[in-house]
């Protein structure tokens, strides 16, 4: 049987999730450069959106919405 105290010593304590800590650090760095809290939030959100492919998908979504609008108004048929 293992000693629980030894297991605790082997695992470093992390005060928070690594990704969350990175966002906090990046946000603080941006605020030190003069960005407001709202601007930092927007910048971090935009980066996540672009990294997840949001910019590539939006053009397709807009075209599908336009086709849907044409269909709903009777301008095109299936």
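-> sequence recovered:
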């Amino acid at each position: 049987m293992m000693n629980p105290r030894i297991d605790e010593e082997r695992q470093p304590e992390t005060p928070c999730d690594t990704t969350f800590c990175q966002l906090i650090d990046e946000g603080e760095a941006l605020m030190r450069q003069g960005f407001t809290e709202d601007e930092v939030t927007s910048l971090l959100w935009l980066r996540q959106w672009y990294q997840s492919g949001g910019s590539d998908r939006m053009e397709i979504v807009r075209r599908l919405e336009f086709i849907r609008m044409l269909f709903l108004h009777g301008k095109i048929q299936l």
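The chain is about 70% helix and 0% strand.
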